[in-house]
Amino acid sequence: MRTSIIGRVVEWIEGFAAAFSAKAVRNTLLILFAVSLFSSFKEFGKPEKSRYLILGDGAGYYAYLPNIFFYQDWTFSYFSEVEKKYWNREGSAYFLNGTEHGMVDKYFCGVAVLLLPFYLIAWLLSALFGYDCDGYSHLFCLSVSIGAITYVLLGMHLLSRILLKRFSQLSVAAAIAAIYLGTNLFYYTIVRASYSHAYSFAAICVFIYLVHKSIKEKTLASYLLVSLCFGIILLLRPANGLVIFSVFGVAPNIQELRQWVGKFFSNFYVIPAIILFASVVFLQSYFYHLQQGVWWVFAYGNEGFNFANPEILNVLWSYRAGFFIWSPVTFVALFGIIFLYKKFPIRAISFVGFFLLVVFITSSWWAWHYEGTYGMRPLVDYLGYFVVLLCFLFDGIKSRLIKVGNLIVVILLVMLVQVQTLQQIRVVLPWSNMTKEKYWYIFLETQPKFAFFLADPDYPSLPKNSVSIEKFKAENSLFENQNQDSLAFEYNGLGNTPLMSFPFQYAVDSLKLYLDLNVEVKIEKFYRDQNIEVKLFENGVIVRNELMSVMRPHYKTSEWQYVRIAFMTDKISSPDSAVVSVMNTEKEKVEVKSIHFSVYEILD
What is the 3-state secondary structure (H, E, C) of 85-116? Predict the structure, then answer.
């Protein structure tokens, strides 16, 4: 009886596996869609959380939609009310950038164009269910997430239609799942859904599909679809126009590529294709004209490329934002080039050249790290090509042992990236200035106590209505009256030890202060409870204290690094002094030098 039950269970499992593998790609895409929706609604399902779906760069990409349908204010002055309503803070449209023609939204309108159908559905549902119809209420925010998920998986679906002509269902399904879950594409689809990267990834996948299809068909309709898709890619992110060079790797051979290009020009297909392409790109010109009355501006102002000094190694391998560090499955996928070269050497060489070109352009941007989020985000857009490489790798490995070993490595890397995605969501990973030491200090840590711990501090700016107070002299110091700019103080005890006291030189009835401390610190190891502290005294009583972990700076151990503390006070009637201290709960050496302390009075 027991044998019979076990046999039936085994038969059911085998039958299920056979049914799943027969349509593995479709089933995988459905599972990924369900997992994505669950993850999005779990994280952003409540109104107080969904607002986080539209912020940072994403606020600029998205802003075209509410402006067109609700505000019609191309100075974006309405955004201060949005900030106050949904974030309870004073602010303006931070996505605007100064140009020679005035302030413009620095981000292109492609994301807004693709989100339009989801936006209209959110508008209808908001009206039906009593949400504010202002473009930023709960359902509008959720529509951004649903839109990103839909486009990403649609792009993968179309890409898989090409791949299934050459590879097995299981190889394609495994490659899709590995790239989606084992890179930061998942993060930019679920968490940063209003950024351009998920949509650019989808558009490039569609571009690969359409070019492949057009090379086979060579019809006017196929050329027009390629032109339309290429225009949308530029409208999402102009730098991604580099995908035009990938057609050398998409085409089966040089001869077919020549025939495809030749027919494009000889049959005058080029004229309607250019008209369609120009019509799409014109949308951005139109929006510039609405904002500043000119048809084109360079919206990034003084930002630009430094082609003489590309940071190629940092873009690929740095702990700060390296592509292979934060999306390690892509490095495994690179071995697929070996099998691609064996079958299609021209395609393999074309891909290597195309990828190096993309990396060169990406690494030449003035801020090569593109910080503010997670990993090397511009390269997320090109992950569709790595799906192809993984298929060649999975299909090309013939040894059963190596195949199993490769699969185990990929699964482990997917698990690692999912943990790091959770770390990013919980703000355990800092948004900027990651180092090797920080990476390993919080490796696999997801506990709440690590949240915000390595994040760069957000200091208040020095108010314009402020005046500098005279320089203070040390009242007492562990430097023993030596020049604090040249002598390093070594402290390896426990507890809280004062370094220097700055007495206030005059009494006032009421004083509002801005205090700014810069200290050079050197440590040998990272520990959580090593801090520099500033205490402010009034009538001998502590009225304010601020501290900063010496881990926070973005430099390394065993090197001098600046620790900064800056804060504003409420009005203080009789400030006595400010004391700078070292706090240390680990008996490890802390070296301190160059204490610079500035105090400003904020005038009414």
Answer: HHHCCCCCCCCEEEECCEEEECCCCHHHHHHH
Note the pLDDT of residue 597: 74
The first and second tokens of residue 220, run together, are: 């006017």
Give the integer Cα–Cα distance in Å for 154 and 150: 6
Q: Do residue 418 and residue 501 come from a single domain?
A: no
- End residue of a domain, out of 398, 425, 452: 425
State whether 101 and 211 are in the same domain. yes
> Is 458 within the bounds of a domain?
no
- Split at pLDDT 50, 70, 90, the class of 504 is low
193 and 262 both lie in a single domain: yes
Please tell me the least confidently modeled range out of 253-267, 348-362, 481-495: 481-495
Cβ atoms of residues 114 and 197 within 8 Å: no
Q: Which domain holds residue 587?
A: 466-602
pLDDT score at 493? 40
CB atoms within 10 A of CB 335: 16
**514/599 Cα distance (integer angstroms):** 6
Token digits of residue 250: 């998409």
Q: Would 445 be classed as within a structural domain?
A: no
Residues 246 and 383 in one domain: yes
Residue found by looking up tokens 């779990």 in the block: 42
Q: What does the pLDDT read at residue 534? A: 78
Do residues 490 and 401 both lie within one domain?
no
Write down the pLDDT at residue 102: 83
Q: Is the pLDDT of residue 127 over 50?
A: yes
Tens-digit pLDDT profile for residues 25-49: 999 999 999 999 999 999 999 988 8
State the CATH number of the domain containing residue 479.
Answer: 2.60.120
Q: What is the C-alpha separation between 30 and 501, in angstroms, rounded?
A: 64
Q: Which residue has the higher pLDDT, 254 or 233?
A: 233
Which residues, 6 or more positions from 326, have their beta carbon under 8 angstroms from its beta carbon? 184, 374, 375, 376, 417, 420
For residues 91 and 293, the model is more confident at 293
Q: Compare 405 and 589 and report the one with higher pLDDT.
A: 405
**What average pLDDT does this structure show over 229-251?**
94
Position 491 scores a pLDDT of 40
Q: Which residues contact 115 (CB under 8 A, 6 or more apart)?
A: 62, 65, 143, 144, 147
Answer yes or no: do 421 and 520 share one domain: no
Domain assignment of residue 3, yes or no: no
Q: How far apart are CA 438 and CA 320, in angstroms?
A: 10
For residues 364 and 491, membership in a common domain is answered with no
Say if 43 falls within a structural domain.
yes
Whether the CA torsion 468, 469, 474, 478 is positive or negative: it is negative
Measure CA of the first residue to CA of the last residue in the chain; give whole Å. 88
Number of domains in the chain: 2
Same domain, 291 and 209: yes
* 110-129 vs 197-217: helix crossing angle, rounded to 10: 120
